[in-house]
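Why does residue order matter? Because the sequence determines the fold. Keep that principle in mind as you read this record.
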Amino acid sequence: MAKAQVPYLKQRYLEKVVPELRKSRGYANPHQVPTLVKIVLNSAFDAEADKAHTAEVVKEITKLAGQKPVVTKARKSVSNFKVREGMPLGCTVTLRGARMWDFLARLTLIALPMIRDFRGVSNRLDGQGNYSLGITDHTIFPETQADGSQRANIGLDISIVTTASSDDEARELLRLLGMPFRAVAAKAAEAAPAQA
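Structure:
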């Protein structure tokens, strides 16, 4: 039986990121080095969307994730938003293991650089070492086809959960994994020569 191939990004993590983090942060044990736990993809759609649109969103998210998402439904009725209990409002999928590493590689190496006038992603984390970003157009991923049959571009939220205990650790981990963070204005100002 053939041995399963290690995803590219996981191999990079084991060979380059772990030694660099141990050196820069002074971890005594390799198990102290932060790692990825899971990536959660979430896409919401309009409460008045028909079944065809719901099925299309599920199909597109399935292409991106490599596994079928769960359709989330309203827990209670809200008349102001025209929502009835049990109406489908979105879909979500959690990636772990090889699919998680493959998705992050596609996101950082292929999809994000495809955005027009891309200058990097925000470097703000949630205070607990997790990172979230929103994508307004899913067609930046190579798995999707931007043809005339699609009614609209699908937006999605991507949440990357790590074992890091602080934002600085998580930011350094994600930067070493290839996340293209935007340069901080303050650091750019410090690097510029002082004007007299």
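The longest helix spans residues 8-25.
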